[in-house]
Structure formats: C-alpha cells, structure tokens
Amino acid sequence: MSASRAFKSNFTAGELSPDMLGRPDTRAYANGAGLLRNVFIQSTGGLTRRPGLRHIATLPGPARLIGFEFNTEQTYLLVLSHARLQVFMGDAEVTSLAAPWTEAMLPQLAHTQSADTLLICHPDLAPLRITRSSHSSWTIGNWPFTEVPTYRFAALDISLSGRGIYEFTYTDIQQAYQANDLALVAAHLMHTPISLAYDQLRRLLHVAMEDGSLATLTLYRTEQVLA
Length: 227
Description:
This protein is mainly beta. It has one helix at 27-30, and strands spanning 14-15, 32-33, 39-41, 47-49, 64-71, 74-81, 84-89, 92-98, 110-114, 117-122, 125-132, 138-142, 166-171, 176-181, 193-199, 204-209, 214-220, 225-226.
C-alpha cells in the first residue's frame, strides 16, 4: 500500500502525547503534531523557529532566575544563588548583593512583583523585599508589617504537582475555583518542572525541567490556541 500525505497548516494543539496517537476523532489530534522541537506556536496556528541562546555569565552554583520588569524598556534578570543576589540588565551584571537565603532554600522561595519591589517568602525566613532605586541601586530588606499575621490559612502538608501546569480560574456561575491542567495532552513533556517564566510580549510561558530541558506553552484563549 502506498503512503498517503496530508497537507497540515494548523498546530494549535501543539505536540501531543503518544497516548493521543489512537484518537483521530479528537480535535487535538487534528490540530496537533507528533514532535515539535525548537519552534514557537503562533496565535494563527503556524510555527516559527525559536530565537537562539547565548552565554551571559557563569553562575557559582544552583540558582533561581527571576524576571523583573520595571517597565517595557527596563527589564532585568535576578539571579538568586547561595547567599547572593545578582542583577543583570541585557548582557551585563549591574550589581551584586549579599542575601540571607541559602542554596537549600532556593526551591521553596516564593515571589511576586509590585512596581519596583520584588516580595520574597520562605517558610524559614522572615518575608523580604528587594527594591530597585536605579539600574545599579538595589536593596534587600524586611517587610514593614503594621500587624504581624498569625492565622494559618493552609495546612502544612500541601504540595504542588511535579507533573503538570495548572491554571486556576474563578467562575462566577459555579462560585468556585477550577484548576485546569494546561499540559494534559502533552504530559510526556513535563519532566518534573521546577521553574517558569512568562514572556508577556509574545505571550509564551517557558518551563524549566529538573533535567535542564525547556518546554514552551502558547496560550491564546480567544483564538483557541493551547499548545
């Protein structure tokens, strides 16, 4: 029997898990691919090659990388390593500070940004704030609490899944939160995710795995792109 070929121009479902190969009746099968490497999926359904990488600096050991966007023209990369904070702008390191965290604390550091301040939390540290005053002027200090919170809102045995990426949304109709697994049809790409970064300009979510590999999620709800 001769092989048949079909023209395919829509990849809005992204790379599919091998478990989906026997489901040609699904929408994901029609809009997916068996293997996608070094490409980004566009909102129109097409593909483009990803940009290349270049070496910026050699780090002293394990580290957490956190994107810090003061505005659209002033963006930084914060590197948290053992007892050290390094700040990069473009290809250059603009400052380096002593920090109170250790290498063992890095995986559990939680953070969020508010304007020129990055808030850092860890179970074994008093809450910290990293404040930007200028390109080369950064400080690390404690939160100035008016009243110290003492209520425990969650049990201590709560853990996060290491096999998926979940989107938490609140629905007015059901008056409840929903947790959707965004990598449901591409679970084979999730090898213990440890960190993520969101590219607001291109609306791409980059996920770093424990083995050093990277995966990229494209999400356009209106255009029905989830890949």
